[in-house]
């Protein structure tokens, strides 16, 4: 097989959260790896929580294979550290980058901040995202969610007002399921931002209408923790494996167990 074929297999493992299998396959690779090879490997490590393995790959790609890390490699490494809660280390890596970080790098940092409730670096990442991609709602929404999780609803409301003032629109949460030859689309029944300062019983009620619970198959944005747990319970209830694709990942739910071990 050529490098492209090996890379395709590595990417497939990464998309299904099989980090160890990706590394095992790489050890048998008999073609010359390229930059895309290491993007696939780093991506596989990121969603499997394999921090040390990812750091080793990032180091050896230049030392052993002569491949200079590019923006996508740095973004993957920031994502690995951020998901694991090593936000300060991720920020240090960004500071040491020999090239100017792009919106993907800052998005990776912001995603880690969102997962672990880190406000300080989240604000910085949001500012950078606004500078690089002012019409993208991602920075606004994630920062708003961080504030809401922390109970800072007034600050979250200010972000929403800023979005409205700048006519920045949030991409609606959509899910799809294919039955036979027909695709059915479901839209989220939530409000403009995912989290907001409403009474607990209303917040719980709106979670009933997240589109994942209606479609159970394909998602255009990141799944929330509540919907993730719902899929686990549903897999046991219907006694079958449920596969959900969101962003560029496939999650497999079977007998209340997630293929990513609840790490994503």
Automatic annotation (TrEMBL):
Give the Pfam families listed for this entry: DYW_deaminase, E_motif, PPR, PPR_2
Q: What is this protein called?
A: DYW domain-containing protein
What UniProt keywords are attached to this protein's entry?
Repeat
On whether Repeat is a keyword of this UniProt record, the answer is yes
**One GO molecular-function entry:** zinc ion binding
Keyword Repeat included in the entry's annotation: yes
Cite the repeat ranges for PPR: 2-32, 34-69
Q: Which organism is it from?
A: Vitis rotundifolia
Q: Which family does it belong to?
A: Belongs to the PPR family. PCMP-H subfamily.
Query: Which part of the chain is the DYW domain?
Result: 193-264
In the record, biological process GO terms are: plant organ development; RNA modification
Under InterPro entries, the record lists: DYW_dom, E_motif, PPR_At4g14850-like_plant, PPR_rpt, TPR-like_helical_dom_sf
């Amino acid at each position: 097989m050529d490098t492209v074929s090996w890379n395709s297999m590595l990417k497939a493992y990464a998309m299904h959260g099989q980090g160890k299998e990706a590394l095992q396959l790489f050890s048998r690779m008999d073609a010359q790896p390229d930059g895309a090879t290491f993007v696939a490997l780093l991506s596989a490590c990121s969603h499997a929580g394999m921090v040390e393995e990812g750091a080793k790959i990032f180091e050896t790609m230049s030392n052993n294979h002569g491949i200079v890390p590019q923006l996508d490699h740095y973004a993957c490494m920031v994502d690995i550290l951020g998901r694991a809660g090593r936000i300060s280390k991720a920020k240090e890596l960004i500071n040491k980058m020999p090239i100017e970080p792009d919106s993907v790098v800052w998005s990776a940092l912001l995603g880690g901040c969102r997962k672990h409730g880190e406000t300080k670096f989240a604000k910085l990442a949001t500012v950078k995202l606004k500078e690089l991609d002012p019409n993208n709602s991602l920075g606004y929404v994630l920062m708003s969610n961080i504030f809401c999780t922390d109970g800072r609803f007034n600050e979250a409301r200010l972000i929403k007002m800023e979005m409205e003032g700048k006519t920045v629109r949030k991409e609606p949460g959509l899910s799809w399921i294919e039955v036979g030859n027909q695709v059915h689309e479901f839209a989220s029944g939530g409000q403009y931002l995912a989290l907001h300062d409403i009474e607990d019983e209303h917040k719980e009620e709106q979670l009933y209408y997240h589109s994942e619970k209606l479609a159970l198959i394909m998602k255009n944005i990141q799944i929330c923790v509540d919907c993730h747990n719902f899929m686990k319970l549903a897999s046991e209830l219907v006694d079958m494996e449920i596969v959900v694709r969101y962003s560029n990942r496939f999650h497999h739910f079977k007998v209340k167990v997630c293929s990513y071990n609840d790490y994503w």
